[in-house]
């Protein structure tokens, strides 16, 4: 999903458990409590409708789907203990010990109900599209078929049968996603319109239960004793006593010992260095790029202009000096370095020659562009969002283009919704965009620029690209899929449909007493479900 | 009184007719008009005069500053990001480093892979090539069993758990080199390399390197087209340092002054003008006109100011590329005139029935004469004081709006937006925040003190009596 | 008195009505689609969402529906948090902002009256000048600057003392309220000090004070019953708007100190184009402000004998 804030700025803090007391609930002596802060109140804990990082984080700790992500980001069994995947269908066998927090077992019917609810147009779920590989899902979401026609059924209480719309090689990766989580029908229907509005209205089947929720102020998670794998969960409680987006506040809380970990923005790095905290970096998995407007009549529809811009943009300098967060990698292509191909990272299996900045060539391309555009180059409109990082990037590019190429760039800073509106209506020349992966497969990035994808806001169209994507979507042969996507990516970059700028990275600090925290690029991040707190007081 | 007890208190002489003399008192000083008197009293107020001088300096600086200090506020110099205030320096020009090639070590099949998480520190860690502020390259020996290497950098000696900033990882056990181009400065760095195989090892190899200041060839050529590697180039001074994109803080302060002071003067001027006119008319005419104008005033006053200001800004945010100044101005004017209106109306009401006005009217004065000669001058004092206090208010409002991101749009600078950018890095680069914050505070302080002084000077009850 | 109050209340209702209308108009003038999501939805889903929120009807109809609901006290459901009604949001978060605001105002008023009286008594002397100067400096420092610096200061203090003297952020205990209230109230404190001072100075030279002194009344009696009682009038006049502005201006302080107040919600709602929350909060704040002003005017009329005696109510 498109990341709303550069990962570096999103902070989840952990607080230090221990003798300083803290929260309103008194800790049992010896209780292992993890404390963190969140950047905002989770807006939507209904798994069929959740879209944002914070809600997915909460859901990842209180619920579990057919599968989940393991330590290295691989798919491991969740509620489903084994499965059979075919070309056209899949069968999942649920474990017997999977239970809801109020007692009854998790059954296949819960999955059927949840998936039907997610695609039902009445639910108006933004993520319904992620269920499209399931047969009839798209038709249902467009209102052409009733929700009951979805290609999923419960053969019995513990067997789930899924039919695919077309062969989907990456279906297993999708099953760990939040929209695929189960819902129990009687619980859901007993509180119409209020499901997941408060702590008692959310039913858990995951490692933790949301025991307390004071809106805007705090959340508390207690270990779920009915979780089938509860032996692997050593934390007794996770507390979130602070909700604020202010990175400095959150860093101060960490320094003061009130929380156990926090992400560090660019501005907190020197502080953490001075305070000698152990810092860790990780790739957030997102790809960031400049998206050009290819609608007819726009100057950026001209290939030479785009080439000129690419030849002066230096991603290395951009990442190092402007973004300033280590762990961020210069963007050289669409598919980031962490994505796996057949057996190795995709970028190793399909290497591309990087484009080196070349001012002379850039000026030549600019001259060609000028000629083709009728002699003058109009000012370009740069659309971007709020946030300090967005301003920095915009100002950097503006000066870069004006000083190297004499191009004028006007900055249009908009709030989130307005930016989306302008992107959809095409009121921009270049927009600073990004994409966070929904699942661990190159397709989550590759299909972005297919002509049918509404998220292709620049409206770039290339028939060969579309054909290649369709080919990759229509086969389960890994080698063929990867090759098709690689060639599609090559076309995308040759045409400079987009200009990659960076691959998201973040730095965070962790209290030395806490171990076992897993960072994921896809799904719940950070993952505290198997975190451990060392014995002994601070 | 004379005499002892018993003696008469008055004598016959006392009751004789007095001398007719000039009963008028000698004039001690020439008669002063209200305004001259006020000016004299103001002059004696040292704080107020100091403030007036400061304000004039600010205005002068705003108008003349960019002519005297000819640095482009938009000029970015990414080699000098967030630099402290500095004098000019001569720097050596650095040649372009040779292209970086990863060192790949072949698998040494003989060595046994150690247990997970217990990898030793890499041996033979050294700096490869010539380390400069452009790039530092590291190289080490391969560790059997490692899947990747993590590289850290710190500005103080690593110890305990602390290794420094995590620069990145090599991604494969066979890649045993790393190039660091991340924000290098002329200081001493300690690089640490840790081998990892999924679990993080505790043992790190460390090497220190001190970098000399230098300027990359491309940047040097911008300053002096004839520069060559090895030569010396003079880097201009930055009296207030640079900001997060390497722009000169002083230049941005000067250009920001224009924005902030423009808003700070224009908005209050206009809305006070509107308020005075409406209030004056309302107070003078009375009756239904007064009633309706007051109802409108009540309504506008009841509007939650900040909320509507924000809404307004979002609604009429102006086109892209515009600075965002105009909608802010319009919002402030539309919502700010009520105070002045009520104040003026109150004054006019009081004065309308004052004796001297009645007397003047009895003597046959026309409405316009009354207004110009009597009412206005007497309200002017109050108006002037309001104006002087409205200006810092407007500056603050602009600073606050820019601070929460609802003010001027980038890249336009204003003192408020500079404060916003600076406060995030206050602990590390205090100069970025202090420059605009101190300037705002000084300006606001000056206006407040001037306002105090003016109020004291223009108060008719405090008129000089000696 | 009663008639006056009723008249003002009625006028207040009309004012709130106009506020709501103005906000509605402004909101619909904002470009952008409140239902726009990062993921584009199918037309079916969009249509359903629009129907659910009533956005598919013409603007005037939406307006009428909204006004009717508002009269019933129903502000609708938030767009961004679809499980919470705006009433819930106000009910859960307003008390926090109110407490913070009251505390800040209390601190500002108490401090302002005390400092103002002090400097008025010691007029011209060193203490007066220093306090005045500090006060003016206090006005010159924006609240967001003070909040951030204060937080850093507390952090250092905690580190030095080895224990948590004051919490760096958060809400719930009294100690957590001190710093935010201070940050919020500082500007008002400075302003009220000066106001009190100038008001007292004016009164001290009045005839009735001189009479009281000539009569031989003890200093404290004069101060309490004559000077303070009259001097405090301008301060009272400004309390109403001051409280309202403090409650709304608390956004930055709420963010810096992680306080779950209403101010934060409003700005976030504006940025997210959450129509219902924006409307609800604006109307709520507007009504609150109007109420405060009326209450203060009545209080003023009660405290100021001149107005009480006169037939005409103060305007």
Task: Characterize the structure shown.
The complex is a heterotrimer of chains A (538), B (466) and C (315). Chain A is of the alpha+beta class. Chain A is 27% helix and 21% strand. In chain A, the strands form 4 sheets. In chain A, strands 1, 2, 9, 10, 11, 12, 13, 14, 15, 16, 17 and 18 form a 12-stranded mixed beta sheet that branches. A 4-stranded antiparallel beta sheet of chain A has the order 5-6-8-7, covered by helices on one side. Chain A has a two-stranded antiparallel ribbon with strand order 3-4. In chain A, β7 and β8 form a beta hairpin. The radius of gyration of chain A is 24 Å and the shape is globular. Chain A starts with 12 loop residues before the first strand and ends in a 5-residue tail after the last strand. Chain B has 2 domains: 52-72 and 245-462, MetI-like (MetI-like fold, Orthogonal Bundle), CATH 1.10.3720; 89-235, Sandwich (Immunoglobulin-like), CATH 2.60.40.10. Chain B is 46% helix and 12% strand. In chain B, strands 5-4-7-8 form a 4-stranded antiparallel beta sheet, with no helix packed on it. In chain B, strands 9-1-10 form a 3-stranded mixed beta sheet, covered by helices on one side. In chain B, strands 2-3-6 form a 3-stranded antiparallel beta sheet, with no helix packed on it. Chain B is elongated. Chain C contains 14 helices and no strands. The longest helix of chain C has 36 residues, at 86-121. The two termini of chain C are 13 Å apart. At the A-C interface, β11, α6 and α13 of A face α2, α4, α6 and α12 of C.
